[in-house]
Design goal:
The complex is a heterodimer of chains A (296) and B (510). In chain A, helix 3 (82-92) packs across helix 4 (114-123). In chain A, the strands form two sheets. In chain A, strands 1-2-6-5-4-3-7-8-9 form a nine-stranded mixed β-sheet, with helices on both faces. In chain A, strand 11 and strand 12 (289-292) form a beta hairpin. Chain A folds into two domains: 7-223, Rossmann fold (3-Layer(aba) Sandwich); 239-292, Arc Repressor Mutant, subunit A, CATH 1.10.10.10. Chain A is built from eleven helices and twelve strands. Helix content of chain A is 38%, strand content 16%. With 296 residues, chain A is of the alpha/beta class. In chain A, 48% of the residues are buried. Chain B is of the alpha/beta class. Chain B has three domains: 2-168, 2-Layer Sandwich (Ribosomal Protein S5, domain 2); 195-405, P-loop containing nucleotide triphosphate hydrolases (Rossmann fold), CATH 3.40.50.300; 437-510, Helicase, Ruva Protein, domain 3. Helix content of chain B is 39%, strand content 17%. Chain B contains 23 helices and 18 strands. In chain B, the strands form six sheets. A five-stranded parallel β-sheet of chain B has the order 11-14-17-10-18. In chain B, a hairpin with a 5-residue loop joins strand 6 (109-110) and strand 7. Chain B is elongated and about 90 Å long. Classes of the chains: A alpha/beta (296), B alpha/beta (510). At the A-B interface, helix 10 and helix 11 of A face helix 8, strand 18, helix 20 and helix 22 of B.
Amino acid sequence: MCDKDIRYICALEPEFPEKLRNIPDPPEGIYVRGRLPDPSKSVVSIIGSRNNSEYGRGMAVYFAKALSEHGVQIVSGMARGIDGLSQNAAVKAGGASFGVLGCGIDEVYPKENRQLYESILEKGGLISEYPPGTPPKSFFFPQRNRIISALSDILLVIEAKQQSGTAITVRFALEQGRDVFAVPGRVTDPLSCGCNRLIADGAGIATCPEDILEALGLIKTENRKYKKINLQKFSNLSEAQLKIIKHLDYDPISVNELASKTGYGLSDLMPELLKLELYGCVEKAGQGFYILKMNI
Amino acid sequence: MFSSVLTMALQGMDVCEVSVEADISEGGLPVFDMVGLLGSEVKESRERIRTSLRNNGYYLPPKRITVNLSPADMKKTGSHFDLPVAVSLMIAMGLIPPECVENTVIAGELSLSGKMARVNGILPMVLKAREKGYKRFILPAENAAEGGAVEGVEVIGVKSLDEAFRFLNGDESIEASRIDLKKLLTGRKEATFDFSSIRGQIAAKRALEVAAAGMHNILMVGPPGGGKSMMAKCLPSILPPLTVEECLEITGIHSVAGILRSEGVVTERPFISPHHTVSKQALSGGGKIPKPGDVSLSHRGVLFLDELPEFDRNTLEILRQPLEDRKIHISRASGKYTYPADFLLAAAMNPCKCGYYPTKKCQCSKEDVKKYLSRISAPLLDRIDILCHVDEVGFDELNGSGQNGETSEKIRERVCDAFEIQKERFKHRNIKFNSEMEIKDIREYCPLGPEEEALLKESFDVLGLTARGYHRILRCARTIADLGHSDRINAVHLSEAIGYRSMDRGVWNV
């Protein structure tokens, strides 16, 4: 344990996070690598589906980046999908992020997050209630979700299906008296179904990072400018390019479909798509598919 | 009495001259021995010969009969030694005058009744005979069309041992078989699969046209039922007609492999589509003395691998050498064999396990998709110039209200033009197609203007291309420019080529 700078903090020690102490089912102690969240600064937990859509990816990065830039600490579960994406964005923006693991603190799970695991230690830390060497087990993960919600001031749900691990975390958050915010989505999108339901049930609606910052009291309501959210830079585009953009969305559309919708031949379409890609307006999703790129 | 008759032996694709010597001598016990490092099918020919001679009324004398196939240190395989041995015995028996077989090569298999049966590898043998300057080649009538494709040798097809006997004795004349290859190859043939039957899919059709024009390897990615296999089957219909040289090359390989059909010569580009359970040996060529595998059978044609990720990984890696060298070297204890393997690799696959990534229909997680795609190794992907997407078939297409596409014939005309341009370009080089250009060729033949240079540089930086990807894009852009009859590669050509090449960007953009 000492080799890897893993500390064990018992619930009785003063260093043990206050927020974690006052929940219905607190852990007896936690293992920590790196540091613990700074109690004087706000904490937002960003969670969501492991199998996110492109929209979810964009939103996770958008919120995590903006919140980090305002000094908010981002907590999540280091899982695939929304968890990892938001933490990665937070670290990249120079903010502090904390990962709560469902396995021993020396295990990297899932393996593809190794890089995140290393980079998160620089400014933030990793927390687990399971002793080092514990392998990831499916029943550990709902348990660790209560720590994610407990550590936060606000729980932000980016994308979730109706029945999901995210729903469990939300339930914990409500039991623990934390505020829940959700990013709305399309009614037809199963990945936004959970979020829309939460909003209908009274969760806060997160349409931009300012909504969260305001709730945290980091920006004053009277100072807040309701700016139009503009995720794309569409300036300086030619007429043809605008016509192409009009048919693009965050759902992938194939080149064939684009050609038939815009009425352009391939020899006209391909150069314009490449230009748009180089401008950063669109990107490829899979082979032969294009989506709008969120300019975050 | 002693006699000698000429025949040929196959060593892979190579042919060696073999002389069949027969001796019938007095003294000792009556035996019939055959020597000369014979394979088991050649050893068995002793029984076939004895019986078929008797059934035609020629009785082997009860004397000491020895047959030697020389050179004695070369393994002889194949069933075509029956007729030369039988003729050699008949000369030794005094039935045929020895001068009748001068300058004549003989090959053929005998049945017990004395009828001739077709044999493999006739075309390379006749070519060898011509090279050695022999005038006449006697072979089974069923092989006559194949042998007749070679000019300069009198090819005589015989139906039975008796007919051969009467021909050699001058009792019967048989007209030499002749095939006019040029006429055969230029004759119009109705293609079984035509691009006009495929609706929509303009992007994929265009990609296939580019692939055909520069012999670029192509990988089609798309959901099940999109028509990937159908389009691949159309590929031979847009490739230029075979030249006489190519026809002989292909026919030779197919002849050695024993898959030549009765028409004698291969007149269309081969389309070989092995099932994904194909073994390594079947793909590369295998056996004690290796027979050509699928990579060689598809020489000058298309090797189509459907459901690419389902193929055994080790089997796929075999393709790496032939894709670079355009031939395959197979080493066995019996020797080293080289077969030509210059093919256009077309492959098809689903983008993920369920087949619908990246649309909403897809049920797979990102990890599943990555795992599925990682079954194809990067070195193999690196040898594929064009990656194209095949769409799902919409209702309009099924319903028949969509537009019918161009016919293969029209596309073929453009491809042929591009072939001519490349022929002219590479007339002093020993390459044929843009896809074969090496780095120094790319520098010479793919100059870019300042605007194109800037576009490529920006793509390189923004899209994260690699050095290899850079060259592949230029090769492909050269072909696209050729299709457009343009001397220079312009930005439109370049953009299209960059669109086909996305392997560099995090491999699959997943």
